[in-house]
Each structure stands twice: as structure tokens, then as C-alpha cells.
Amino acid sequence: MIWQGKQILYLDENNKPFLKVIPGDDFYVEQSDFLICRINPLDKPCVGENTLVTMSDYTQKKIKDIKVGDKILGVKTINKQTYFVESNVFDVINQGKKFCHTFIGDNNKITCTLNHKFMKVSKKCAGVYKSVKEIIKKKNKVFEINFSNTNKDFYRGWIKGYCLHDFHFKNDKHGVCATCISDKKEEIEKLQKILNYFSIYSRLIKKQSYKDKRFNTQKDFYYHLYITNKKDYIKLRDIVNTSLKNKNQYCGFITGSIDADGYYDEWNIGYSQNEINLKNYKLIVKTLEKLNIKHFKNYRERKTNISQDKISKIYEIKFSKNYIFLFPSQFDYKRKLKNFTIKSTVNHSSLKKYYYSYNTVYDLTTETGNYIANGFIVHNCGTYYEAGYCRKLHKPLYVLQTMKREDYSESFVGWVFSSGGMFFKSENELLEFLDEKYELKKKDK
Q: For the domain with range 5-145+346-438, which CATH number is right: 3.30.450.40, 3.40.980.10, 2.170.16.10, 3.40.640.10?
């Protein structure tokens, strides 16, 4: 596997500590002319087909529905700090049916083979992966994310939260109309897409704004979303007026409220509301309490935009960005991956065996060599990643066969040949080829 390297603390002959840096495999691959790999026929770690993979926008998608080219959330270790980064999917591998175990952590459970590797918690170095079998045996802890499942319940709550803050509802003798206005086209288009998920259809119109000197931040154009069909209007009102029923709806409601009237900064997730909409503020506080989310409440006064003589009361809530996976913003401009480390975001939890099963399983090949599966940071199919890495560096990959050619996945075979590599049936055949091509025979001293 392409290993990232590590730092180890040693003691010298005088018992003084010193740090030794061991370069990662990626360094050696970059410095080499070629790479040799050998795949054990039994060494195909994988996870269940319904495992949820975290995408780069913090939403989740079943691993069987992932496509080559999708952007997922991966991690990368730099100077002993592990950061969340966007990662491309190079390959999706259906490994067929296998005997699996289901393991449970503090918040999530995952079905996988015993040789699948998880990122384990280590005080000495970062980015260490061990098979789940070793982790259970040695009672190591793993990194686990407490996330909300972005399913229909989540989006039902999101619509309620967003509409309570940014929608205007009108029902009179002239008909019905639900309206939302924003200066960001991306925001309105995403809102329209989520409403379509519930078969609520709307019209998007770009309108020039009327200048008002009282507002310094006024834009030249605004995007208006209209819902004028009575059936669609009733569907939307029903969602807004229905009480929240479960965790995913609670998380969706908080996320929709923050997307409407909140923010995500480097350290916190924040939300503010004036005294006119105090009812919404109290509903947010109540929902956070139901989710047992620690939060900080604040109250301040400020002069209003329209009249500098009037004072408006502002109620604020802040809570840790650790909860960003519970409340994943649906708008790209609000999401920030920069300097976002797992240290302050991910829990340390113990794994326990739950039950056995026989499942269809999958694995991924990703740019970072890892992905987040059901909230756990796991390694991807190592040797397949090597093929992608060699192709990226334009260096040949030579495979020492341990099984028939047809037993390798088509994508892997294609990648080997596209890298300029070959398959070899024996070590002697491989060594003879390398001796001839790279002149590797030892010279007599």
C-alpha cells in the first residue's frame, strides 16, 4: 500500500529522546523508476453495499451508488496533523459476496470484512491504519464521526428550518403564493432541487432590485423563487407546520435554520435572530437541547439598518464546529474545509462485534487512499490505489501474479497497462525483465 510515513521517538545510548522521520511510500514511488505489487487473493478488504460514504459536501451516499469521478471526503496527514480534504474516486470495486462482521462504535455501526483497515487513535504518530481484527484484539480506539443521515427525514427538517426564516407565505382571494428571495443563485437553485425531492415545483426568476438608500448592502439583482400552484403550496405548508419527530429531522431543522440565518466560521457554528422572530430562536434552543448539543447563548443590542435611532435586540447561539457532520450546510459557499482537522471534530471510540452476516461488499480506490464509511475513517483497497498513483506519476506498475488474469478486476488490469506496466507469472520472469530493461544486475566489486 502507499504508506504516508511516520515519525518515531527513539532513545539514544545516553537515554536522550530524538525524533526519527521515516519517509512515506509516496516519497519512494516518486523517486523510483517503477513499482512492483503483489495481491494476495484473500487480501480484498471491503464494506457492505449499503455502507454510507461521506461526500465532499458532507452528505452521504451508499457505496454501491458511488461513481468514478465522484468527490468524497478523505483525510491527509501533514506534520502530525490530519486534515479533511476533498478526494476523487478512481475506482469502485464490487467484490461479490463475503462473510462479514458488523461492528458498533459509540454512535454508528459498520459491516465489513475482518481485514478491513481503520484509522486508529495513536499518541505517537498520525495516520496509522490497522485491520479491525487487530484493533479488536488489542482494544485500540478508532476515529468515529457522529453524523446525521441526509435522507428524506433530514431534508424534511431542513425545509421546515429554512422556510420558517426565509419564506413568505400568502393566501388570499387572489390565490396562494410562497416566495423566497436571495442574491445568490446557487442558494436558490439548491433550494429548488430540495423542494423537487418532495415533488414541490417552483419558478425561478431573476429580477432587478429597486435601490433603497437606507440599505448599503443592497444588490443590483435578486433571485426570486415562486410557488403558486395550490397543491405545491399545501405540501410545503404541511411540511413547515408538522412537528419534528426524530434525530434526522432535528438535525435537518437546525441545518436549514443555519443555512437561512446562520454561519460556519473557523471554530464555531452560529445563528442569530432579532426579537421579532424570537419564536424561531426558542425553537432552535429547544431542538439543540433535545439533541444534547452544548451551546452558548448571547444577547446584544444594535441600531437598526432602517433607522439608526431605533435599537434592535439580537439573540445569538454558538456551538462547536465539532458538530459540522450533524449539521452539514447544503450551500457550498458556507462549507469550509481549510484547516479543518479531525483532532477537534472526531470522537475516539471502541469497536465491539455485533453479529455475523453474508453480504455483497464493495471497496473504493480514492485519491487520498481512504474514505469515511458510516462515520469511520477507513483505508481503501491498497493495491488498486498503487495503480492509480503510478498512472498519476506516469510510472509503470509491474504485477507479480498470484491468480489468473481474469480474477483481477477489469479496471485494475486497464490501469496497469495504461501505466506502461505488465503482468508476470513468476519472480524469475519479472527479475529477468527488470535486469534487461533497467540493467539491475549487480556489478562485481
A: 2.170.16.10
